[in-house]
Amino acid sequence: SNETAKGEPIFSKGLYHWIMFVIDFYSRVRSTLKMDIESFVILQVVVSHNLYELNKTGSKTYSEVEYEITNIRENNKNRKLTFASIAEVLQLPRETVRRKVIALSKKDILTFNTYGGIKLGPSYKTIYKEFVSQTILDLSSLIKKWEKSGALKTLLELDK
Fold first, then answer.
1. Of all helices (H) and strands (E), which one includes residue 152?
2. pLDDT band, very low/low/confident/very high, at 125 (cuts 50, 70, 90)
3. From residue 78, how far is each of 66, 94, 122, 140, 146 by CA, in Å?
4. Could you tell me whether strands 110-113 and 117-120 are parallel, antiparallel, or unpaired per DSSP bridges?
5. Which residues have a Cβ under 8 Å from the Cβ of 112 and sit 6 or more positions away?
6. Angle at which helices 12-31 and 37-55 cross, to 10°
7. Do the Cβ atoms of 72 and 122 come closer than 8 Å?
8. Can you say whether the dihedral through the CA atoms of 11, 16, 22, 28 is positive or negative?
9. Of 84, 102, 109, 124, which is most buried, counting CB atoms within 10 Å of its CB?
């Protein structure tokens, strides 16, 4: 049964599946991307900035996002990201952000200059095609496990 005698939904299986998802995700960041977690989170801030700018023209499908990400173009009308803005968002020292952005730019995952700010680099398209695709499959698997255990229903009803 997915509920206790008091009628409270079972929580432990959903939490277990979540923790396993996070551990696997972290392991894939380290092994597949060869990246520490702070560098990965900095990269995610740059990705989220790109998605924010992309969504200004309306929501996009997976294919449209993939096209935009893998065909990165200079767009000067977008607000630029700086070391300081990323440091503020993540509450990290600016020097840490600068050092990690430089390391990511050496791998062509990010690019930066004073005029355009910090942007996704040409090598990010490989990460998008491989890492993001696997993450979506893993997330789908997690949600299916949550649905089977009753955790998804519980999560969706938390505001009630």
1. helix 151-156
2. confident
3. 19, 22, 18, 32, 38
4. antiparallel
5. 101, 102, 105, 118, 119
6. 100
7. yes
8. negative
9. 124
Helix, strand or coil, per DSSP, at residue 89:
helix
DSSP 8-state class, residue 9: B
Question: How do residues 58-112 score in pLDDT, each as one tens digit?
Answer: 998 888 888 887 776 555 456 789 999 999 999 999 999 999 999 999 999 999 9
- Orientation angle between helical segments 37-55 and 94-106, nearest 10 degrees: 80
Q: How many CB atoms are closer than 10 A to CB 133?
A: 12
Token readout for 33 is 């991307």
**Whole-number Å distance between alpha carbons of 122 and 45:** 17
For residues 30 and 25, give the distance between their C-alpha atoms in angstroms, rounded to a whole number: 9
What is the pLDDT averaged over residues 109-129? Answer: 89
- 35: pLDDT confidence band, cut at 50, 70 and 90? very high
Nearest to 101 by CA among 84, 118, 114: 118
Task: Report residue 80 as tokens.
Answer: 């630029």
pTM: 0.82
